[in-house]
From TrEMBL:
<protein>
    <submittedName>
        <fullName>LPS O-antigen subunit length determinant protein (WzzB/FepE family)</fullName>
    </submittedName>
</protein>
<keyword id="KW-0812">Transmembrane</keyword>
<keyword id="KW-0472">Membrane</keyword>
<dbReference type="Pfam" id="PF13807">
    <property type="entry name" value="GNVR"/>
</dbReference>
<keyword id="KW-1003">Cell membrane</keyword>
<dbReference type="InterPro" id="IPR003856">
    <property type="entry name" value="LPS_length_determ_N"/>
</dbReference>
<dbReference type="InterPro" id="IPR050445">
    <property type="entry name" value="Bact_polysacc_biosynth/exp"/>
</dbReference>
<feature type="transmembrane region" description="Helical">
    <location>
        <begin position="314"/>
        <end position="338"/>
    </location>
</feature>
<dbReference type="GO" id="GO:0004713">
    <property type="term" value="F:protein tyrosine kinase activity"/>
</dbReference>
<dbReference type="Pfam" id="PF02706">
    <property type="entry name" value="Wzz"/>
</dbReference>
<dbReference type="InterPro" id="IPR032807">
    <property type="entry name" value="GNVR"/>
</dbReference>
<keyword id="KW-1133">Transmembrane helix</keyword>
<dbReference type="GO" id="GO:0005886">
    <property type="term" value="C:plasma membrane"/>
</dbReference>
<feature type="transmembrane region" description="Helical">
    <location>
        <begin position="49"/>
        <end position="77"/>
    </location>
</feature>
<feature type="domain" description="Tyrosine-protein kinase G-rich">
    <location>
        <begin position="297"/>
        <end position="336"/>
    </location>
</feature>
<feature type="domain" description="Polysaccharide chain length determinant N-terminal">
    <location>
        <begin position="42"/>
        <end position="146"/>
    </location>
</feature>
């Protein structure tokens, strides 16, 4: 640390000295003298620099303490943020998907003659699709409206550890009358829009997928650890329900289409394929209806965190103090070389 500080000081002094000398050059003789002077003065007397720093120790100490106090105040002012997360594993693929893949290999050519495509259903990565759905505006908007969490998302001021109650910013939301009172400029509205809520929710939601294991981690950050845990649980339940409903709806539509095709064709082989497809769609619907963890299985459930996730108060204080000290040394050295140059 000592050598780094010495190098930092020497670099400042050398740079300023060269700039000062270069500004005084007016003819070739001056230039030649300056080159000789630069060669002779590359070695800066560190003792002199340290004496300058010691001479300005009062200013350095004052600025450093000022920054340290500001960092401490900032760290104490910032509210605690808690993070709750759940570890998930992709659920086994629906039986219907595997059956359709087998049918595609066996009767793909025949089905194509009937205008039916069997080749792409089994290729869909449902885990990646579920992650994209979870991070979409549609899912987020439905999630916020379904669980009525807009005030908890946009207006929470602090959380009381002893009573486990949250308080809202009175300038944003009137909890007594359940009314939004914030003052905003257009295009924002008094009641936050779903676009604004989506941006806020995206900042506290994290969905990550491990490419090697396939495990998915969903986490929520909030001032209340209980709310963070509750939202994570709701997210897992809702995404499983949404993906289940999508597949059931698709399977029912496919069944209706296949039944119409059966009525219209007279080719026995094609009818056989169509009946098997209807059977696979029925398996898909049955599999979805009896399974709650349709897309994700919970490996490690979400917990109410006991320790805050951020802010890192100690780090803020250390960095603030170091920044103040470096700035103070820089100011003292610049003042010294300005006076010396004059």
């Amino acid at each position: 640390m000592r050598y780094c500080l010495a190098f930092y000081i020497q670099l400042i002094a050398t740079a300023y000295h060269r700039i000062s000398m270069s500004n005084t050059i007016s003819n070739p003789q001056d230039a030649e003298f300056a080159q000789q002077h630069f060669a002779a003065s590359d070695e800066i007397d560190l003792r002199e620099l340290f004496s300058v720093i010691l001479g300005g120790k009062v200013l350095i100490l004052g600025i450093t303490l000022l920054f340290a106090a500001g960092a401490v105040a900032l760290a104490l002012w910032m509210p605690n943020i808690y993070k709750s997360e759940v570890l998930l594993a992709p659920a086994d693929e629906a039986q219907g998907s595997g059956g359709l893949a087998a049918l595609a290999n066996q009767f793909g050519g025949l089905a194509n003659l009937a205008g039916i495509n069997l080749g792409k259903r089994g290729d869909t990565d449902k885990t990646e699709l579920a992650i994209e759905v979870m991070e979409s505006r549609k899912f987020t908007s439905d999630f916020i409206e379904k669980h009525q969490i807009l005030p908890d998302l946009m207006a929470v001021d602090k959380w009381d550890f002893k009573t486990n109650k949250i308080s809202y910013n009175p300038k944003v939301y009137d909890d007594t009358n359940k009314k939004w009172v914030r003052k905003v400029k257009p295009p924002k509205q008094i009641i936050p829009s779903m676009q604004e809520a989506y941006k806020r929710f995206s900042k506290i939601l994290s969905v990550t997928s491990d490419k090697k294991t396939g495990f998915v981690t969903i986490s929520i950050e909030h001032k209340s650890p209980y709310i963070a845990k509750q939202w994570v649980d709701w997210l897992v339940t809702d995404i499983n329900q949404v993906m289940k409903q999508r597949d059931v709806t698709e399977a029912k539509r496919s069944t209706e289409y296949l039944e119409k095709q059966i009525e219209q064709t007279n080719v026995a082989d094609i009818k056989s394929v169509l009946y098997k497809l209807v059977e696979e769609q029925a398996k898909t619907i049955m599999f979805a209806e009896v399974r709650d963890e349709y897309i994700f299985k919970t490996i490690d459930p979400a917990l109410v965190p006991e320790e805050k996730f951020k802010p890192k108060r100690a780090l803020i204080c250390v960095l603030g103090t170091l920044l103040g000290g470096m700035l103070a040394v820089f100011i003292v050295l610049v003042r010294y070389f300005v006076k010396k140059g004059n």
